[in-house]
Amino acid sequence: MQESAAPARGEQDVGAGHPAWMPVALAESGVRRFGPGESNPRIVEYNGCTNLVGYDDKVSWCSSFINWCLARVGIPGTGSALARSWLEWGRALSEPAYGCIVVLTRDHPTSWKGHVAFYLRHDDEHMYLFGGNQRGAVRELPYARSRLLAYRWPDECGPG
Could you tell me which InterPro entries the record lists for this protein (predicted)? Predict the structure, then answer.
């Protein structure tokens, strides 16, 4: 049996067009924020990949989840809990690719607030994104395409 060359960091092919971080992310589906007085240790772990080290699951943790997923496959993220920190990370894509990082506006396009998640697909009105802190859980949700700020892809990986 012939051995194949090891894939580059973050690029192992788990199926055509499936970046290595997506199985990591999808395996977390259903992780959710706990009720008052409790904190989900898994979300605390996500926060440990950002400047929210030690924070509970009551803070905004969408960026923490993205950082955590990328770290699992050896790709450095932003290290920031701010969703908009991803606007300066990696390289911009003109069109979405499965698994790319999508940065959205939350209140106003110039606000510091935002949301970040992984791209799955879209239709005429919505992008279907998979991420953390989406209605308090790791899950897929639709978002209006009008909220788009950027599609981003890791510099360490091949074409998006």
Answer: CHAP_dom (IPR007921), CHP02594 (IPR013423)
AA identity, residue 78: T
CA distance linking residue 53 with residue 50, whole number of Å: 6
pLDDT tens digits, 88-110: 999 999 999 999 999 999 988 88
- Pick from 92, 80, 99, 70: which is nearest to 149 by CA? 92
Residue 152 contacts residue 19 (beta carbons within 8 Å): no
Q: How many whole angstroms separate alpha carbon 70 and alpha carbon 75?
A: 5
Phi then psi for residue 105, to 5 deg, are -80, 150
The domains located in the chain, with CATH, are 21-153 (3.90.1720.10)
- For 28-125, where are the E strands, in sequence order? 91-93, 101-105, 114-122
Exposed e or buried b per residue across 107-145, where buried means at least 16 C-beta atoms within 10 angstroms of its C-beta: eeeeeeebbbbbbbebeeeebebbbbbbebbbbebebee
Residue 85 DSSP symbol: G
Question: What is the reported pTM?
Answer: 0.88
